[in-house]
Amino acid sequence: MINDFYEYISPRPEEEKMRLEVVDRIKGVIHDLWPSAEVQVFGSFSTGLYLPTSDIDLVVFGKWETLPLWTLEEALRKRNVADENSIKVLDKATVPIIKLTDSFTEVKVDISFNVKSGVKAARLIKEFKEKYPVLPYLVLVLKQFLLQRDLNEVFTGGIGSYSLFLMAVSFLQLHYREDVCNPNINIGVLLIEFFELYGRHFNYLKTGIRIKDGGCYVAKDEVQKNMMDGYRPSMLYIEDPLQPDNDVGRSSYGAMQVKQAFDYAYVVLSHAVSPIAKHYPNNETESILGRIIRVTQEVDEYREWIRKNWGSPSQNDLPLNRNDVALFESQQLDECNNNVPNDDDDDVVVLPSAPHSKTSSNSSSPSPSLRSSPSSSPLSPSSTTSTSTSSDAVSPAETHTALKYCISAFFSVALEVS
């Protein structure tokens, strides 16, 4: 099922064509203002790891005494490139940017000035994609998982694409299996183990992530010794492999919400692949991955619109959702933006509802989890409140024990059946 989801959600030629037109429109405005300026694409659009609704990252290189954020904002507005109500100038951000939504395609765009790190990061990501063929599969599933829960925007405290990618790289670098570079490795098992690591065992209080030189975990106490007075590593400390003094996760103040969401996914998927899963009422009708990830009908309709306007005539004769990926309406999410089970799905684990703040027009973030308990071990189990289960469901500890013996073979068979 992960392969099916990856094939469905991966960028299509017509989507790339549409996005290139958006880039060209913005480039036209920029070059009219500054003919010698250079515009480059970076981020997920340049690496191919973007979702249908992902934004486009652009950087403008040129010579200015002060960054011309407002000048470009005014020009984009006057030329009707940006939706009137969407364009914003974030001049107080760590990296000042212009955020806008293209008035025709509704594609979101972030524009920065003279920032070289993004372009270098895109090259690094492409190198790791070659080393670990499984990375695109993991990353797109994880990006959709976070997007569904409004935990994918650094601007609102979530985990950005670069941070998520580095977490996945670190997970593979330090994995006990020697075949993580093998393109035929069981992706389902890796996904569960990723959720287990960052949802249960990783000690966010004391441990940071380092990718450089093959990867390792770093003690935050040691990192802090090399920082300026008054500064300390963030909750999700990820050392930038391109700029070691840059903490990539410093703005992800909602890292504990992400941790709770990962823990939820681990519990749900562990139950789904355990021996008792065959007794679940929805076992025959719902895929394993579909228990934590769905694609909304609105997204599917948007992709259909793109195909009709930018696709070739031969593409328009084919159904877009050829792999029968489950689609659902937005109201089928609970208050934590997890999939709502059917009335008879008594054994599906669901996070308890809690007070929350809106981060978008149609979804909300999960409630904050309890903090990890301090420990001297870089990977000590965290003392979090366990998610609620039905009386018929096994406990996470029992599931974990069974999982160690049967997860790989069972998941392989289950994915083929799904």
From TrEMBL:
<dbReference type="Pfam" id="PF22600">
    <property type="entry name" value="MTPAP-like_central"/>
</dbReference>
<dbReference type="InterPro" id="IPR002058">
    <property type="entry name" value="PAP_assoc"/>
</dbReference>
<dbReference type="GO" id="GO:0031123">
    <property type="term" value="P:RNA 3'-end processing"/>
</dbReference>
<dbReference type="InterPro" id="IPR045862">
    <property type="entry name" value="Trf4-like"/>
</dbReference>
<dbReference type="GO" id="GO:1905870">
    <property type="term" value="P:positive regulation of 3'-UTR-mediated mRNA stabilization"/>
</dbReference>
<dbReference type="GO" id="GO:0003729">
    <property type="term" value="F:mRNA binding"/>
</dbReference>
<dbReference type="GO" id="GO:0006397">
    <property type="term" value="P:mRNA processing"/>
</dbReference>
<dbReference type="Pfam" id="PF03828">
    <property type="entry name" value="PAP_assoc"/>
</dbReference>
<dbReference type="GO" id="GO:0060212">
    <property type="term" value="P:negative regulation of nuclear-transcribed mRNA poly(A) tail shortening"/>
</dbReference>
<dbReference type="GO" id="GO:0046872">
    <property type="term" value="F:metal ion binding"/>
</dbReference>
<dbReference type="GO" id="GO:0005524">
    <property type="term" value="F:ATP binding"/>
</dbReference>
<keyword id="KW-0479">Metal-binding</keyword>
<feature type="compositionally biased region" description="Low complexity">
    <location>
        <begin position="349"/>
        <end position="391"/>
    </location>
</feature>
<dbReference type="GO" id="GO:0031499">
    <property type="term" value="C:TRAMP complex"/>
</dbReference>
<dbReference type="GO" id="GO:0051301">
    <property type="term" value="P:cell division"/>
</dbReference>
<dbReference type="GO" id="GO:0005730">
    <property type="term" value="C:nucleolus"/>
</dbReference>
<dbReference type="GO" id="GO:0043634">
    <property type="term" value="P:polyadenylation-dependent ncRNA catabolic process"/>
</dbReference>
<feature type="region of interest" description="Disordered">
    <location>
        <begin position="335"/>
        <end position="395"/>
    </location>
</feature>
<dbReference type="GO" id="GO:1990817">
    <property type="term" value="F:poly(A) RNA polymerase activity"/>
</dbReference>
<protein>
    <recommendedName>
        <fullName>Polymerase nucleotidyl transferase domain-containing protein</fullName>
    </recommendedName>
</protein>
<dbReference type="GO" id="GO:0005737">
    <property type="term" value="C:cytoplasm"/>
</dbReference>
<dbReference type="InterPro" id="IPR043519">
    <property type="entry name" value="NT_sf"/>
</dbReference>
<keyword id="KW-0460">Magnesium</keyword>
<dbReference type="GO" id="GO:0006364">
    <property type="term" value="P:rRNA processing"/>
</dbReference>
<dbReference type="GO" id="GO:0070568">
    <property type="term" value="F:guanylyltransferase activity"/>
</dbReference>
<dbReference type="InterPro" id="IPR054708">
    <property type="entry name" value="MTPAP-like_central"/>
</dbReference>
<feature type="domain" description="Poly(A) RNA polymerase mitochondrial-like central palm">
    <location>
        <begin position="2"/>
        <end position="128"/>
    </location>
</feature>
<feature type="domain" description="PAP-associated">
    <location>
        <begin position="186"/>
        <end position="246"/>
    </location>
</feature>
